[in-house]
Amino acid sequence: MLEFIGAPVISGIAIGLTILAAQQEKAHHQIILISGYLLSLLIILPFLLLTIIFSETVCQWIGLSSEYKQDFILSTIAGYLSIGIALLNSLLIGKNQQGKALLLAFFCGTPAILTLTICVFFNASQPITWVLCSIICIGLSINILIIFLSIKLINNGNFDVSMFRKTCHQLLRFIPAGLSIGILSPLCVLLARSVIASQQSWENAGMATAIWRISDWILSSAVTILYFHYLPMLSAASSKGSIKASVMRVMLDVGIPSFIGLLLLLIFRNEILHILYSPTTDVTFSTAFLFWSGEVARILSAVFLMGLFVLHATKIIAIWDFFSQPLFVLLLLLGMSKSLELTGLAYLLTYLLYATLCITAFLYIDRNQFHKATLSK
Questions:
Q1: Which terminal residue of the chain has fewer beta carbons within 10 Å of its beta carbon, N or C?
Q2: Which pLDDT tens digit goes with each residue over 351-361?
Q3: Domain boundaries in the chain?
């Protein structure tokens, strides 16, 4: 729930903030942060209020007993306050200060780990509550810092209202993509598991989840590298003209190691499953091949999706997202959930189509923008 509240911002405005920070002068960075911060708080506020007001209903829907209602509400508040952390992190990445971004992540993540360790050591009651409270405290401190910087900027007379309006307008373009990716993706994962369980069994739903979780190591690593390292680089390069060559180079840099990782995963799949789950957990070669071939296509699409973000093609991104996880769920509902192999085939077909759409859209938009820039000169 904590991640779900912040997902629309992390998948949209936070990426837009990184791109603008990489493309704009240093003097404008604080205004970019303030613009993204105010927009994010306003957009997510309705989600926060609705989840708190209807917390009991939502808890029943996701299967949480009433004793966890307080923790559920705390998690939504923690997610809302974590928006400030995500945006400050995005600004640092846009400024090419990945070391500081890493330090921020360490500073914000360590208290929760320490709190949990202390709770376990002293056998404290309600450890989840204490951990959530620590996350809220860290979130509050970062939000207070952003508010302090904003007030200082205004008092110094360095707040450019026209620049603020322009930045807000630019960041507004990233909202549809953030809402589409941030809300649809987690909901579709829940639906997919539910459909597999109803058509096959909860054991097979667990197996499908295990397959996804294992490949997540590679997928998440690829996406993190794309976001932390290549996004600011591509953003800076886009102001100089076509970024086609840069994106193709990124595709090779990220795609080849990811492919090798997934291939090794395929070869040693059962050994890894035995270590992480149980000695009886096995998956056939054909099933794993279908799922993880889909992951190759998914990583490929992530590279070109990043290119589309840099080109500010956010409407296309929002529309295209319906051809990723929502399409996968639709294929399952249409009958491709009767076996794990069919489910894997649905996964592969979904991301082959999604990758094709992302690549085609990127090449078309990049070419058009390059021609427009050439004509204007």
A1: C
A2: 999 999 999 99
A3: 2-172, 179-376
